[in-house]
Amino acid sequence: MVQSKFKFFNWRKKNQSKLKIIFLIIIIIIGTSIGILLILYYLINYKRPEFELADEKIDDFAYWIDEIDKKQIKDSKYDLIIIDYSADGSEDEEFSEDDVQYMKSSGDKKKLLLSYISIGEAEDYRFYWEDSWDNDEDGEPDSGAPAWLDEENPDWGGNYKVKYWMQGWQDIIYDYLDRIIDAEFDGIYMDLIDAYEYYEDDFPNSDWLMIDLVRNISDYIKSYQGKDLLVFVQNGENLLKNSIYLDHIDGIGREDLFYDDDDITEEDDREDCIKNLNKALKEDKTVLIIDYPTNWIYIYDFYQNCVNNGFLGYATNRELDSLYEHWCFPAT
After folding, report:
1. pLDDT given for residue 47 in this prediction
2. CA distances from 194 to 56, 88, 141, 159 (A)
3. SS3 of residue 81 by DSSP
4. d(CA 247, CA 153)
């Protein structure tokens, strides 16, 4: 037993210098890794873009519209969060005014909540949907369906194209807006703006019809009891060339600008899009970018590209069913 202890102490004495070297190398590797991460973090965050909305400074945002957890929203440090007006999209789970105030109540800094609303497609789980409109679920409106309802989007089941310029659909939209306003959201985030592209061949003025709809919606919610709510649009950035359209929005969100999932987007398309988004920046509009990369290297590159172009970015999953925060661009 004594001999074994002697051998151990003798081995430790002989190898002490080697152990010190190994320990030092480990410390250097760990320190270098942390240092690299800190440098990468600094390269993005020292020039983090900042916008002013509703008298609040905004330098980050999040996007979560499915399976929403109110407490997570409340506890989040994000300045701006886009959510659905309902926890699961249904009428039964619509958020009340108390719910919205609860989600916005986080410390001494006001959190802005925008409500998602699709104005370019109808969704078969919303309060306005009637099963008889497509009773056989073949994606084609049945004979009793309203004239404004068109075929199902083949890439997104349960979503149907709509002739958005028709009065019947617009009546539904204004009913929808009233629910959002009554719940005390800070504004709206309108999706499917680019639905006008679907009708371009048959209706050459489809872009103007969309501009007209957005303008009327903006006038409506900004004049509603003097609340001056925020108006954001998603995609359809070509319409930013129109000054009337640009004057009636506070900001724009764009999906898949730098990455289409984990694939880099086409350079020509990307540059054309950035050129249009810069028109919004020049008019002091807020520009939000939502991409869906999964690789951490692509996520870092995405945020770096956003910052370099003066945009606010948010990397998430395409289902939009979780709240994400990434080490390289955390909520502040």
Report:
1. 82
2. 29, 24, 22, 14
3. strand
4. 30
Q: Which helix (H) or strand (E) holds 83?
A: strand 80-83
Pairing of strands 312-315, 286-291: parallel
Which of 29-38, 149-158, 209-218 is the least confident region? 29-38
pLDDT digits (tens, 9 = 90+) for 45-86: 678 999 999 989 999 999 999 999 999 999 999 999 999 999
**Pairing outcome for strands 51-53 and 56-58:** antiparallel
| Residue listed under structure tokens 């001494």 | 108
| Residue 227 pLDDT | 77
What does pLDDT average to over the chain?
Answer: 90
User: End-to-end CA distance of the chain, in Å?
Assistant: 60
Summarised one tens digit per residue, pLDDT across range 248-262 is 999 999 999 999 999
Separation CA 252–CA 234 (nearest Å): 6
Q: Is 25 helix (H, G, I), strand (E, B) or coil?
A: helix
Whether the pLDDT of residue 145 is over 90: the answer is yes
Secondary structure of residue 158 in the 3-state scheme:
coil
Residue pair 283/289 in contact (Cβ under 8 Å)? The answer is no
CATH superfamily of domain region 52-120+164-315: Aldolase class I (3.20.20.70)
The reported pTM is 0.88
The rounded distance, in Å, linking the Cα atoms of 198 and 203 is: 9
- Distance set, CA 162 to CA 119, 156, 176, 246, 279 (Å): 9, 14, 15, 23, 29
Here the tokens at position 308 are: 């370099």
- Looking at residues 311-325, what average pLDDT do you find? 96
Residue spans of the domains in the chain: they are: 1-46, 52-120+164-315
In whole angstroms, what separates CA 184 from the centre of its chain? 20
Residue 43 has pLDDT above 80, yes or no: no
How distant is the alpha carbon of residue 304 from its chain centre?
A: 17
Residue 122 forms beta bridges with which residues? Answer: 160
Q: Where are the beta strands (DSSP E) in 206-311?
A: 230-234, 251-255, 259-260, 263-264, 286-291
What pLDDT was estimated at residue 105?
86
